[in-house]
């Protein structure tokens, strides 16, 4: 392995290895891939909506059905599921980094997030598509919760379905800023699925709450980029007198949908964190205070 460089940040060129694996699995070269909405599998709006409607029907109906059955343990399948998603997330992440780091360094942030030659190259489109497909595999997270009779929160069920739809919309809408939320999301998923993998193996990990903090930071950064990309597009298109950096690649409906979904994620995850963790702090302090009071009374 050679020393890391901008073009090879991991010391070796990863794309040829990915290309060989992709060809072995699909029988086609990545250079032959074309993302054609309505032709490429899973790229019709009808198909996507039917898939997500089926997801909600299965988990909500399954939760009712499971009331009459004992919970399944499913430890081994759950371990395998989380390990696979850790590997997939990590693999896609390093491929995205290899593609984007040279562009960021040579052409700058604006080109990277707003130009086709920055954020919408043939290699990136294939990675966007593969990342989109993984969102359907991640829906199994909820299936495991249903079969194990674990609580289903609105945040969990909304987030999983909305993310699959978001990835579809941004893929079809050709938003070149997509790599920002995707790479951040993959980073979070490497940490999160590794946590669940270890937890399923019976290993206690103390930093679970920091996964939520990492998710909140992710959405704050996402909002900074997608708000900027959306603003400069609409300003340059409809209000050229307003300060703007110029056109930004992507369809208007995709920009609006991305802004709404990511903003809702930030609010929901902040609410989840405050409810889940901060609510426990006073109780912990109360236990400590009662313990100290008891010791003092015994000393008296």
From TrEMBL:
UniProt entry tagged with the keyword Cell division: no
InterPro entries for this protein: ELO_CS, ELO_fam
Subcellular localization: Membrane
PANTHER family registered for this protein in UniProt: ELONGATION OF FATTY ACIDS PROTEIN 1-RELATED, FATTY ACID ACYL TRANSFERASE-RELATED
Family classification: Belongs to the ELO family.
Taxonomic lineage of the native organism: Eukaryota, Fungi, Dikarya, Ascomycota, Pezizomycotina
Transmembrane segments: 45-66, 78-97, 178-197, 209-233, 253-274
One Pfam family from the record: ELO
Organism: Aspergillus ochraceoroseus
Gene Ontology cellular-component terms listed: endoplasmic reticulum membrane
One GO biological process term: very long-chain fatty acid biosynthetic process
Catalytic activity as recorded in UniProt: an acyl-CoA + malonyl-CoA + H(+) = a 3-oxoacyl-CoA + CO2 + CoA; a very-long-chain acyl-CoA + malonyl-CoA + H(+) = a very-long-chain 3-oxoacyl-CoA + CO2 + CoA
Listed name of the protein: Elongation of fatty acids protein
